[in-house]
Design brief:
transport; MetI-like_sf; 286 residues; cell membrane; membrane; 0% strand; flat; mainly alpha; 13 helices
């Protein structure tokens, strides 16, 4: 049986083909993983030359980490976890309920709502910065200010158009017969949603979980608008502050960059099965 590549070409065999594949895989590994390994090694190398990185250090040390702790990097990391934890929980909650309403319920103006949600994804953060800062300074109806608090970084990311659209399109593919059978058995609306529809959306939840985590974790503009004190900085924002300090060495910056990168990698590894299933589910349906 002939194996084919993703391009539909016959897979070459033989010793030279294996050597070529090994060289290609090694080159791809060095291109994508090399900088990350160099960052990790540099973060735990006692003396770091900013012009030279190596994958094989002479010895490893925690000196850079200790200096980073003295610069309150762990406090910034905690702020980031608080923001991403609260923001992602609200974002997933809003996305599943909004997706269920748009996918399974018929109401006038649903197409307009989808267009408006899609339009929010087309506006860059720089355009939204001024109106967002005005809203956070005086929240409509409540007339409270969220500036200078971590809550002000959580509320704006509670709804994201991408996550809502992913959940909406995924829920549209769920057979309605399953809901009708559950209702015939006496299940109410919330029970149908919780026990029938939502368990089938685990692949989509993995997708919005990873993308949502990365989007919130990498936020720079929003903390810049909200934070009024360095104690409120998240880690991405704190890296800019540390970089502008002449007394901070390159090793501390590398530790901060490594800590900023690590949670996203761990989140992907934890949700990769659901993420891959969510990406490929649309290709195998129909």
């Amino acid at each position: 049986m002939r194996n084919e590549t993703a391009l539909g070409l016959a897979e070459a065999r033989g010793p030279w083909a294996r050597v070529l594949r090994s060289v290609l895989y090694t080159a791809l590994f060095m291109v994508f993983a090399g900088p990350l390994l160099a960052l990790m090694v540099g973060a735990f190398t006692p003396t770091v030359d900013p012009t030279q990185f190596t994958l094989w250090p002479d010895r490893l040390s925690l000196d850079n980490l200790e200096r980073a702790v003295d610069r309150n990097v762990l406090d910034y990391l905690l702020n980031s976890f608080l923001v991403v934890g609260g923001g992602l929980a609200l974002q997933v909650l809003v996305s599943v309920f909004a997706g269920y309403a748009l996918a399974r319920k018929r109401f006038r103006g649903s197409a307009v709502v989808l267009v408006l949600i899609l339009a929010t994804m087309m506006l860059p953060e720089e355009v939204l910065a001024v109106p967002l800062s005005v809203l956070l300074a005086d929240l409509p109806l409540l007339h409270v200010s969220l500036v200078g608090s971590l809550v002000g970084m959580i509320v704006p990311v509670a709804a994201w158009g991408f996550s809502i659209l992913v959940m909406t399109e995924f829920m549209k593919e769920i057979p309605k017969e399953l809901e009708e059978s559950a209702r015939l058995d006496g299940a109410g609306e919330f029970r149908v949603f919780w026990q029938v529809v939502l368990p089938l959306c685990r692949p989509a939840l993995g997708v919005i979980g990873i993308f949502g985590f990365t989007m919130i974790w990498d936020q720079y503009m929003l903390p810049l608008l909200v934070a009024t004190d360095p104690a409120q900085y998240t880690l991405p924002l704190a890296l800019r502050s540390l970089r502008s300090d002449d007394q901070v060495g390159i090793g501390v910056l590398l530790v901060g960059a490594f800590l900023a990168m690590l949670p996203s990698v761990l989140a992907f590894l934890a949700l990769q099965r659901s993420f891959i299933r969510g990406l490929t589910s649309g290709a195998v349906k129909g």
